[in-house]
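Late entry, evening session. Most of the bench is empty. Finally got around to the prediction I had been postponing all week. Sequence below, unchanged from the version circulated by S.P.
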Amino acid sequence: MPRGRSPGYEVQRDAILAQAAHLFARGGYPATSMNQVAQACGLSKATLYHYFEDKYSLLLSLTDGQVSRLLLLVSPASRDSLTPAQAQQQLHALICSFVAEYVHAQDAHRVLTEDVKFLQPPDRERVLGKERDIVAAFARLVGGIRPDLHQALLAKPLTMLLFGMINWLFTWMKPGGSMSHDALAPMVADLFLGGLGALALPPGLDLPADVLAQAGKHVKKRVTKPNLKGDSA
């Protein structure tokens, strides 16, 4: 009978992935060797190959694993009809969950962001497909909060703006820094949702009158800008 895996197999495998993610994130996937990964893990190269057949399998496990974890975060997001208040509550919680994941898995997220281009086309398409599913889940909630934005085909572009804000946290936010993710996450959510509520539809959209009227209800009164030039004499 074939021997089963030891109880510590998955623990060791996860430790190898963590070290590989750190090396890929710091030096880049192309410049990192399996020798470097083995040394960082305190393993022989032969032992490393017992867990991963080559460097590519490390990259695939890291990128697919990270995007799959993110996809699990959005899976509880309801596809059912939600009130705007319910959609806003779900989106607020989801933004906070993503910020926390990004901060705790900075190396893996950086690899997903920067090294997915090195995957073979079928593998890359699978990973990117999961990313599209994540964006679609966020966009559904944006459209649930502001149905007029959905009808104006703006829910997805606004979702991409949100990801533009949070995808690059790893470039400046360091674990153990002056601001924790617990403090930052609700700030990100409040900033996006506050802007979403104040957003006016671009002029000239060919939308039904009731949709345009509903959009107007969401937009807060604009503050009149002061005359900085002063009164003319």
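Two things to note before I forget:
Confidence is low (pLDDT under 50) at residues 219-233.
Residues 121-145 form the longest helix (25 residues).
Will write this up properly tomorrow.
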